[in-house]
Structure prediction request, 263 residues.
Amino acid sequence: MPRGDRGDPDLQPGPGETLDCLSGHWKIFQLRRGHRYSTDDLLTAWYAVEACRRAGAQPRRILDLGCGIGSVGLLVLWRFPGASLVGVEAQAVSAGLARRSVRYNGIGGRAEIRVGDFRDPGVFRPGERFDLVTGSPPYLVPGEGRRSSLPQRGPCRFEDRGGARDYLGTASARLAAGGIVAWVHATRYRDENVAAAVEAGLGRIVVRPVVFREGRESLISLFYASQNPARSVEDEPALVIRRADGGWSDEYRRVRAEMGFPA
Prediction:
C-alpha cells in the first residue's frame, strides 16, 4: 500500500492537479491540463521489463532519462521491488510532481528525481552506472507539427533538449556491463533510431511496432538494445492494442495485468 499523504498538504492534489492510480496501489500526481501518462509510457515500461525477463536479468539500478512526471520509471520500479531508480528531468514542474509521487508512495529510499538536462555530465555522479535505462524521446523536431500551449507538453513532444540520438548516447555511456536500454519512438523514424543505437555502441537491437487498432498503421515502436559487440537488428510482430471491434487484444490485457493495471 502507498504511504499516502498522512495529513501533509503537499501530498494532496493542489489546484489543477489530480492524483491518479498507476501500478497496483501506487498513485501519481499529474496536472489536469498538462502532460499526463499515456499508453506509450505503459508500453515502454512493459517492454523494458520484458527485455530484462528475456535476458534473465534482475536490474538493481534503473535510470529513466527525461523522466517527466515519473510514470515510466515508477512503473518499472513497481515491477522490480528490489531495485532503485534515478530519474532525470529538466522541467522543474514535472520533476516536482514526480518527487511528490515518490513521497506519496513511500519509496523515497528507492527513488531519486534529479532536476537537470541529462546531457550535462554533472547530473550524474562520477562512475555512476545502471543496469536498465529507459527513455521516451520526443517524436517531433522543432517546426514539425503544432506546439501545445499547455504546461509541460511542448518539451515532451518536441526535441528542445535533444532527441533519440542524445538519449541513446547518454544511455550507453551510463550503462553497466550487461545492461539494457529500452525506449519508444515514432515508427516512421525506426531506421533513424536503429542507426542512433548503433552509433551509441549498442549491439543487439530489437524493434516491436505498436498498432493501436487492428488494421491501422503503426504510429509508435518499442525498442530495446544492449552493449553487444555482435551487431544485429530483430523486428518483432506488431503489438495490437485494440481489435477491429474496438475491444482490447488478449496480449494487451496481459501487458496491463503484468504492470499492475486493472484488467
Remarks:
- The chain has a mean pLDDT of 92.
- The longest strand covers residues 175-186.
- The first helix runs from residue 39 to 55.
